[in-house]
């Protein structure tokens, strides 16, 4: 017979030297009378704070990068638009000068 029936924390087995207890996980002792204290790893407040600030830093950096890309795209397309506007103004100036030349030519004919 096993000592104290292994306290219901293990199984009783017959060995060459007599009965013995084979304990369940987290129990130990001749009759599985002692338990191993199971603790979960604790997270310190410093670890939580450092993770929080790292996340905030990455978020802020991402916002700056996105704003920079949007600003660069806006400036690029605006510069292309100003080239078009300048070309339109140059064309309009040439058209006005051609119209003046035509008037001058027609004025000389009449």
TrEMBL record:
TM ranges: 52-77
Domain EGF-like: 1-33
InterPro entries: EGF
Keyword line: Disulfide bond, EGF-like domain, Membrane, Transmembrane, Transmembrane helix
Keyword Membrane: yes
Disulfide feature: 2-12, 23-32
Name by which UniProt lists this protein: EGF-like domain-containing protein
The organism's taxonomic lineage, starting at the top: Eukaryota, Metazoa, Ecdysozoa, Nematoda, Chromadorea
């Amino acid at each position: 017979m096993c000592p104290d029936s292994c306290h219901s924390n293990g199984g009783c087995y017959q060995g060459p030297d007599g009965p013995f207890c084979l304990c369940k996980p987290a129990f130990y002792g001749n009759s599985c009378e002692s338990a191993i204290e199971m603790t979960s790893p604790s997270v310190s407040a410093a670890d939580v704070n450092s993770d929080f600030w790292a996340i905030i830093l990455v978020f802020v950096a991402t916002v700056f990068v996105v704003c920079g890309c949007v600003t660069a795209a806006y400036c690029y397309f605006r510069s292309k638009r100003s080239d078009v506007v300048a070309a339109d103004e140059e064309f309009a100036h040439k058209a006005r000068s051609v119209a003046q030349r035509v008037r001058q030519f027609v004025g000389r004919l009449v």
